[in-house]
Amino acid sequence: MYPKAIVDEKTIKPYLGNQQVSTPGAEQIAQNLITLPTHTGITEDLAKEIARKVGVAYQITR
User: Fold this and answer.
1) Tens of pLDDT along 19-60?
2) How far is CA 35 from CA 1, 18, 20, 61, in A?
3) Distances from the Cα of 9 to the Cαs of 18, 30, 54, 62, in angstroms?
4) How far apart are CA 30 and CA 12, in angstroms?
5) What is the 3-state secondary structure (H, E, C) of 1-62?
6) Which of 58, 56, 37, 55 is CA-nearest to residue 47?
7) 5-43: b or e for each residue (b if 16 or more CB lie within 10 Å)?
8) Measured between alpha carbons, how far is 3 from 24 in angstroms, rounded to an integer?
9) pLDDT at 62 (0 to 100)
10) CA separation for the pair 47, 62 (Å, rounded)
11) The CA-based dihedral angle spanning residues 28, 25, 58, 37, taken in that order and rounded to the nearest 10 degrees
């Protein structure tokens, strides 16, 4: 849910014990991670639409 690696979040960084911590790959994960809704308000049609949009965004073909 963060737009970048947590160690690069300005509001979080002051609370880190090690200000120079290395997090290889964290930025790439933050850029590619998506959070999908899983609550009961998601209808089957909405789930299909979400899946379609994720497929388009990630260029997934079937």
Assistant:
1) 777 788 888 888 888 889 989 999 999 999 999 999 998 887
2) 7, 28, 28, 20
3) 14, 11, 26, 36
4) 15
5) CCCCCHHHCCCCHHHCCCCCCCCCCHHHHHHHCCCCCCCCCCCHHHHHHHHHHHHHHCCCCC
6) 37
7) bebeeeeeeeeeeeeeeeeeebeeebeeeeeeeeeeeee
8) 16
9) 63
10) 17
11) -90
pTM (2 decimals)? 0.56
CA 4 remoteness from chain centre: 9
Residue with tokens 């899946």: 51
What are the structure tokens assigned to 15, written together? 């609370």
